[in-house]
Write a structure and sequence with these properties.
By secondary structure, the protein is α+β, with helices and mostly antiparallel strands. 38% of the residues lie in helices and 25% in strands. A six-stranded antiparallel β-sheet has the order 1-2-3-4-6-5, with helices on one face.
Amino acid sequence: MDIETIREYCLRKKAANESFPFDETTLVFKVVDRMFAVVDLELPDHVVVKCQPEYAVELRDRYHGIEGAFHFNKKYWNQVALTDDVPDPLILQLIDHSYDEVLKKFTRKQKEAYHDLP
């Protein structure tokens, strides 16, 4: 799995966009206005994704390439190594899971904005 595949996959999601809100090397993928994936272009062999807390711990116990995300709340965010022991299909599933976790936490206003988009 490579960063371009991650980027293309993230941007295919409904209402997804990319930006550099923190600095010129931290690529953030958002749905409406909430982050669901982050890639540091200086460390492009990792992706940071949101995760349900118990599942996050389970994944960290099972895969060497998944750990609590640096600079993020480790209860909810995992850093996934793209070139370690994490299978490519699982990486894509974790992006989907992250996206879904973000959608679950939308406010009413965010839900309305999301549903009004094509």
